[in-house]
C-alpha cells in the first residue's frame, strides 16, 4: 500500500510500555521531553514517500519532482527532500529564503503565485531560481523589466487555467475556469505573442497548471495533461515553437480517515505516463519534460501532533467534549475546511474503555473543534492524544491566535529525536511589537 493511502506513519507501533511509538521513540516520552502541543515528523515515512514518488515516476524518461513548499516548509524537511532528489515549488520570499538556508540548488526551483511582488521577483532572479511560473500580464511585463535590468534571460512557464473541475473542497479547487489563478485559455496567445515579440528577457519553456488539492480521482489528471498538450500543439501550429516543459502541479490526496480512498502514487504516475503518451502521439509532439509539484502527499502521513488532554465537559444528554492544549492555531484545517482526522490516546492500549467524545481545541471560538465524535480509549486529563496525518498544511498554516505560542517540531528516526523547529517563546512573541514614545 502506498504511503499516501495509510493513516499512520510507517513506523507506528505499540511498545512494551503499552505506549504508541513512532520512529522508535515513545510518544509519551517525547511529550514529557519536549512538552505539548508537539509536531512530530517521521523521517523514514518522509524519505519513504519521496522514494516511492521517484520510483513510480521513473517510468517516464524526463521528470522533475518539485515539493510544494506550502505544505510544510522548514529547513530540515527542505534538506531531506533535497537529498532525496526533489526540487521545490515556492510562492514567497519566505519559502525562497528557507530553501536557500537549506542549501538547495536554486536551478531546481519554480516560483509560483498569482501576485508576486517586485521585491520577490528581484530576490528570485538574484538567487538564480530556475523557472518562474508567470501568472498574469502584469507579471510578464514586470518580470521582463527586472530581468532586463539584471541583464538576464529568465526561463518562464505560463500558468494556465485548464478548465477542469475536481471534486474537492471549494477553497482548494484551482483549475476551474472561474479561478483567480493563471491565464485563461483564451489569453494564452496574447501572452505568447508578447513574449516572442517584446519581452526579450523572458524565455518561454512550457505551461503550468494545478487543478486542486486532496484529489481522489485520476481522470482529472489525465484530462489536465490533455489540455496542456493541446495548448502546446496549438502554440506550435500558430507560432512555430514547440514548448518542451509541462508542469502539472500537485493535488494527490491522502488518507486522513477510513473514508478517504486516494489512488496510490504508482497509479498516478501511470495515469500521467499514459496521458502524455496518448496526447503526444495524437498531436505529433515530442515527449516533454514533466514537472510535478506534490505537497500534501509527501508530508501529511509523516506528521502527527501530540496534545495533552485537559478539561472535559459532559453536556447533559449530549456530547462529551475533551479539551486539548492546542487546536485551530496549530491546525486550522478542521475549522477552515471541515477536515477530518483520526487520533488515538498514546499512553493506553486499545479497546480498554472506548468512549465517543469530541476533541475541542483551547482557542476562544466555538468552531475550534479538532475532531467531532471520535471513539477514544477512556480519555482522561493528562493523557497524551496523538492526531495522525498532520504533516501537511498544519504547521504551515499555523498562527498565534490568542497569542498562543507555536509548538515545536521534532524529527524522529531510529529511536532518535531531534528538534527541527524550536518552541516559540514569549519574548519572540513580542519582539516585533513597538510602543511609540508618545503614548
Ligand atoms: N502546486 C500549486 C501551484 C499549488 O497551488 C499547490 C497547492 C500545490 C502544487 C500542492 O498541492 P498538494 O499536492 O499539496 O495538494 N491549505 C489547503 C491546501 C491548499 C493547496 C494550495 N495549493 C489544505 O490544507 O487543504
Task: Give a quick rundown of the structure.
Helices cover 29% and strands 24% of the residues.
Please provide a written account of the structure.
It is a single chain. With 439 residues, the protein is α/β, with parallel strands linked by helices. The protein is built from 12 helices and 21 strands. Strands 4, 14, 15, 16, 17, 18, 19, 20 and 21 form a 9-stranded mixed beta sheet that branches. It has an 8-stranded parallel beta barrel with strand order 5-6-7-8-9-11-12-13, surrounded by 6 helices. A 3-stranded antiparallel beta sheet has the order 1-2-3. The longest helix is centred in the middle third of the chain and has 21 residues, at 219-239. The mean pLDDT is 96. Residues 68, 70-71, 89, 112, 172, 174, 210, 213-214, 249-252, 293-297, 333, 337, 393, 397 line the site of ligand LLP.
Amino acid at each position: 500500500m502506498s504511503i499516501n493511502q495509510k493513516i499512520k506513519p510507517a513506523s507506528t507501533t505499540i511498545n512494551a510500555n503499552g505506549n504508541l511509538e513512532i520512529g522508535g521513540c515513545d510518544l509519551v516520552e517525547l511529550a514529557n521531553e519536549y512538552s505539548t502541543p508537539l509536531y512530530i515528523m517521521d523521517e523514514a515515512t518522509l524519505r519513504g514517500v519521496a522514494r516511492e514518488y521517484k520510483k513510480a515516476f521513473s517510468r517516464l524518461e524526463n521528470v522533475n519532482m518539485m515539493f510544494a513548499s506550502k505544505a510544510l516548509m522548514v529547513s530540515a524537511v527542505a534538506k531531506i527532500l533535497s537529498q532525496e532528489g526533489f526540487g521545490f515549488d515556492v510562492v514567497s520570499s519566505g519559502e525562497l529564503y528557507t530553501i536557500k538556508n537549506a542549501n538547495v540548488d536554486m536551478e531546481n526551483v519554480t516560483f509560483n503565485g498569482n501576485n508576486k511582488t517586485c521585491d520577490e521577483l528581484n530576490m528570485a532572479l538574484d538567487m538564480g531560481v530556475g523557472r518562474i511560473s508567470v501568472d498574469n500580464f502584469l507579471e510578464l511585463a514586470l518580470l521582463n523589466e527586472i530581468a532586463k535590468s539584471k541583464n538576464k534571460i529568465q526561463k518562464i512557464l505560463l500558468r494556465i487555467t485548464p478548465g477542469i473541475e475536481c471534486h474537492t473542497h471549494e477553497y482548494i479547487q484551482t483549475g476551474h475556469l472561474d479561478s483567480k489563478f493563471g491565464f485563461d485559455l483564451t489569453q494564452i496567445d496574447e501572452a505568447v505573442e508578447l513574449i516572442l515579440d517584446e519581452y526579450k528577457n523572458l524565455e518561454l519553456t512550457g505551461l503550468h497548471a494545478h487543478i486542486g488539492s486532496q484529489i481522489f480521482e485520476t481522470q482529472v489528471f489525465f484530462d489536465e495533461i490533455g489540455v496542456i498538450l493541446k495548448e502546446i500543439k496549438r502554440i506550435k501550429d500558430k507560432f512555430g515553437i514547440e514548448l518542451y516543459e509541462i508542469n502539472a502541479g500537485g493535488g494527490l490526496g491522502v488518507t486522513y480517515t477510513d473514508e478517504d480512498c486516494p489512488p496510490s502514487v504508482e497509479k498516478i504516475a501511470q495515469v500521467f505516463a499514459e496521458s502524455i503518451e496518448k496526447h503526444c502521439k495524437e498531436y505529433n509532439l515530442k515527449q516533454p519534460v514533466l514537472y510535478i509539484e506534490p505537497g500534501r502527499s509527501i508530508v501529511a502521513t509523516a506528521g502527527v501532533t501530540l496534545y495533552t488532554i485537559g478539561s472535559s465537559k459532559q453536556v447533559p444528554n449530549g456530547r462529551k467534549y475533551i479539551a486539548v492544549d492546542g487546536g485551530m492555531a496549530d491546525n486550522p484545517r478542521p475549522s477552515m475546511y471541515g477536515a477530518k482526522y483520526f487520533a488515538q490516546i498514546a499512553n493506553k492500549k486499545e479497546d480498554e474503555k472506548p468512549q465517543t467524545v469530541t476533541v475541542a481545541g483551547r482557542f476562544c471560538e466555538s468552531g475550534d473543534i479538532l475532531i467531532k465524535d471520535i471513539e477514544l480509549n477512556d480519555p482522561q486529563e493528562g493523557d497524551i492524544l496523538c492526531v495522525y496525518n498532520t504533516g501537511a498544511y498544519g504547521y504551515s498554516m499555523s498562527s498565534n491566535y490568542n497569542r498562543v505560542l507555536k509548538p515545536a517540531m521534532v524529527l524522529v528516526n531510529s529511536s532518535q529525536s531531534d528538534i527541527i523547529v524550536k518552541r516559540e517563546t514569549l519574548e519572540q512573541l513580542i519582539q516585533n511589537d513597538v510602543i511609540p514614545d508618545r503614548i
